[in-house]
Fold this protein.
Amino acid sequence: MTSPPRTVPPGTGSRTTATATAGTPAARTGGVLARVRGTGGPRHPGRARRAALPYLLLLPALLLELLVHLVPMVMGILMSFRSLTQFFIRDWSRAPWTGLDNYELAVDIDRPVGRALLDSFVTTCLFTVLSVALCWLLGTAAAVFTQHSFRGRGLLRALFFVPYALPAYAAVITWAFMFQRDNGLVNHVLHDQLGLGGAEHTFWLIGDNSFWAMLTVSVWKTWPFAFLIVTAALQNIPGDLYEAAALDGAGVWQQIRRITLPSLGAVNQVLVLVLFLWTFNDFNTPFLLFGRAAPEAADLISIHIYQSSFVTWNFGTGSAMSVLLLLFLLLVTAAYLLLTGRGRKDADAR
């Protein structure tokens, strides 16, 4: 038997057909495209406000950055083209325009100003290389040593962070007292307790030994930062890699060389750059250790520019030196990022 025909109420066929048509993939795709193109669907003004909210929240920080960094930078560049001395401090805009004379004076190594700047630059480069290398080495070694759990690891990590947690002024001033010749702790331990270097106490804050005193303080207060960064990066290395390497007969040094160091490549790229910029521009360490006039062996370029500007009152020359230092750091940073980025691409390709 055949079933009787179904009767469709008048007017419902068109709605049923429209509903079925709207549910098809083609119809849904067309609706999405229409909304994307702005030809269909309701507009949402709140969406634009939500998109602009992050920029509004960043606006105070951008304005503060403009006032604190960019405006003084522009003013310093303008000052470097003028003969700005103590006679024009009240109104520096009246200082005579000298063009590139300050830059020529700063780079002319045949004249005392240029020669002194070159010696300071060489000292700063040596200090930076040694400090960054020691900070990275100590930080990486301590992070690898405390990577695996053992009794007292938390306390040891807390002790490692103490130099980084202390304010820089308090730490450096404490070291300045410890480096005193007659009643300092360093000479007391080395000469009186251990008998090293003879009975005559060493001068640490003057002469050639001032360089090593400054390097010691710099490494002591900076290496915990490298330890912190490397410790955080080691948490992302899967432990299965070390277990597989141990099953294959790899020793501790082979695991570090084949697994740990390659896995830290991206982190070390940023870490070394940050340490380099911090150390090369370090002003607090030499200023708090030696005062306004650092010894020749510890004459970093930051303290040298300070002396040229605020001791001899030649702000034009000091500003030119600062601009040259900025250009040097920009070039070194760009070359470093280019070389390390190309090296990482080659390593990934291999």
